[in-house]
Write a structure and sequence with these properties.
heterodimer, A: about 325 residues, alpha/beta, 4-stranded parallel beta sheet, B: 5-stranded mixed beta sheet, globular
Chain lengths: ~325, ~260
């Protein structure tokens, strides 16, 4: 059993079916108390200053790791910088398994990609189906945390984010993760309803800034919808695993994401949207599409390196909340 | 007497209002202000109002850079964009306009409809569209900001994305023999091009132009010519945020009195 790094959400069932442990490199990076130093490691190795902080962190996590010698790199559907990330991994002697989500959501192409992964890892589809059933049961519990967030108003935006974002790799241990979820749900029964007067949607990639959710709540607002994190948790149960990863919106075009966002902001009574973008990321361009297509006020926040919310961003958040009120 | 303070990145603006009129104004260097008048007491900034010589205050409202990292003891703190909107409404009596504020390290565009903020954009990670760029360029040209802000005709092309590399670009143009007027006009057009995408999205028939950068006439002319809008610079462009704070005090007090 080996630890296999992943650069973003992939059909994790296949890794587990092969008896390996998936490790979402993003979570390892941002969970490191000295995450900012990891981006320095990448820059010292030669990564340019004006490249995404996540990519640099992902590079350093693998280079510094003693246990990860194989990485599944998503070469289509996440970030084009992953191509060069993959190559610098190879330069350092890491095994790479590329995985591509087809841009047009083509069922057959996706099925082929997954089949290649099944073969590359030496497992079979029956085992994959068994793991899927196991994971779906945990995902259903995480979906309940999400429901409690917006419908019962008893879960913070931060906890909603943490549990959903963890579904990319189930923290490498499904049983343990499920226990954490059960414990949270049990403890949450006695939580009072949140009194925030502004309900926010958080769209875009998970933030590299570590205290955004806390800051929103200190300012009287709460995130009741984490768009991409919710997608990582595969919120809609689908029997066919290929179809499940076809319905997963994040790796495909922005318009599919917009349909999902529209539905959820209506359902959840969202007052304002925070669109988080990473410095130097191509997704910054998509901000103009969100602003054109979504009718709820949008604040775009940009993060570069790991750390706390800076004074300028706080100022912009305050003004945005004031405007909504 | 009611006091509004705008804690800017480059200067601290103070406005004292008495009987609904501006009674006294101060503009102080930010670093000097904190060094001379501020001290920390139990995690809060305490401003020594006595040494500022402002007299006894009935109300104090503050805004601006740093409002999240320190609280002025005894002050109500309001969001910066709100302060600027209130200041513009008070100074000009308008209800529908787009406010463009170019400050030391900030550029802000606020759309105001029926006296309410309906949308805004601010610069985020880059200060190339702010007063700081103009300060640097004025230093390279060895002219005052006043002089720099007079010129809008026959601009030289300046394309550098970065405000710091912009300096070497400008020096390159000086060597090519352009006049100071043409170089200054180029600098003003460069700022305009960086602001235009923000402004175009939130444009109204009237643009209210504030901040220290609005003191010169060149950018106002460029905005009018290029965007075909009416550009109004209020009497106190640089004090607009501080005025908004002082007005907020007055409004809050009036509401309080009315409530009683």
């Amino acid at each position: 059993m080996a630890e296999i790094g992943i650069t973003t959400t992939v059909p994790v069932e296949i890794i587990m079916a092969a008896g390996h442990t998936p490790v979402d490199l993003n979570n390892i990076f941002i969970g490191n108390p000295e995450a900012a130093k990891l981006t320095d490691v990448a820059e010292e190795a030669g990564y340019p200053r004006n490249i995404c902080g996540w990519i640099k962190g992902l590079y350093a996590v693998v280079i510094n790791s003693d246990s990860i010698d194989t990485v599944i790199a998503v070469t289509q559907g996440d970030c084009s910088n992953t191509h060069a990330l993959m190559e610098t991994y190879q330069l350092a002697g890491i095994n790479i398994i590329p995985f591509a989500y087809p841009f047009d959501r083509d069922y057959d192409l996706l099925s082929l990609q997954m089949d290649k992964l099944v073969k590359a890892l030496g497992t079979d589809w029956d085992k994959v189906a068994a793991v899927k059933h196991r994971l779906d049961a945990v995902r259903a519990k995480v979906a309940e945390i999400d429901r409690l967030t917006w419908q019962e108003n008893t879960v913070s935006g931060r906890n909603n984010h943490l549990f959903q974002v963890s579904c990319s790799d189930f923290n490498g241990d499904v049983d343990n993760f499920e226990q954490d979820v059960d414990k949270f749900l049990e403890e949450n029964r006695s939580c009072p309803e949140g009194q925030e007067d502004v309900r926010l949607a958080f769209i875009g990639v998970p933030p590299i800034v570590t205290d955004l959710y806390d800051y929103f709540e200190r300012m009287g607002a709460r995130v009741v919808f984490n768009e991409v994190q919710r997608q990582f948790a595969m919120p809609v149960p689908v029997e066919d695993i290929v179809e499940q990863y076809r319905q997963y919106t994040y790796p495909y075009g922005v318009f599919g994401r917009i349909d999902d966002i529209r539905t959820q902001i209506d359902l959840r009574g969202v007052d304002g949207i925070v669109h988080y973008v990473q410095s130097f990321c191509f997704r910054q361009i998509e901000d103009m599409i969100f602003r054109e297509k979504l009718d709820v006020p949008i604040l775009t926040i940009e993060g570069d390196k790991p750390g706390k919310v800076d004074a300028r961003t706080k100022l912009r958040i305050d003004s945005f909340l004031e405007m909504i009120r | 007497m009611l006091c509004g303070i705008d804690l800017g990145s480059r200067s601290v603006k103070i406005v004292i209002m008495k009987d609904g009129q501006i009674y006294r104004t101060e503009i102080l260097e930010t670093v000097d202000f904190y060094r001379r008048y501020g001290r920390r007491l139990e995690g809060q900034l305490v401003v020594d109002f006595d040494s500022l010589g402002l007299g006894k205050l009935d109300g104090l409202v503050a805004t601006g850079y740093g409002r999240n990292t320190l609280n002025i003891a005894g002050a109500t703190v309001i969001p910066e964009l709100k302060a600027h909107m209130l200041g513009a409404i008070w100074q000009l009596g308008l209800q529908d306009f787009t406010l463009l504020d170019l400050g030391g390290q900030d550029s802000k565009v606020i759309k105001v409809q029926k006296g309410r903020m309906t949308d805004f954009q601010t610069n985020d990670k880059c200060a190339a569209s702010t007063g700081r760029y103009l300060e640097n360029m004025a230093a390279v040209l060895n002219v005052t900001l006043d002089e720099l802000s007079r010129h809008s005709e026959n601009p030289v092309d300046l394309d550098a994305t970065c405000a710091i590399f912009g300096e070497s670009e400008l020096i390159g143009r000086i060597i090519e023999g352009y006049s100071v007027a043409e170089l200054a006009a180029g600098v003003n057009h460069a700022i305009f091009r960086r602001i235009r995408p923000m402004l175009s999205k939130l444009l109204s028939e009237t643009v209210v132009f504030t901040g220290g950068v609005a003191l010169g006439g060149a950018l106002k002319r460029i905005f009018e010519q290029e965007l075909a809008v009416r550009v109004v610079v209020p009497e106190y462009p640089q004090l607009n945020g501080a005025i908004g704070c002082a007005v907020y005090t007055r409004e809050a007090r009036n509401k309080h009195v009315a409530g009683n």
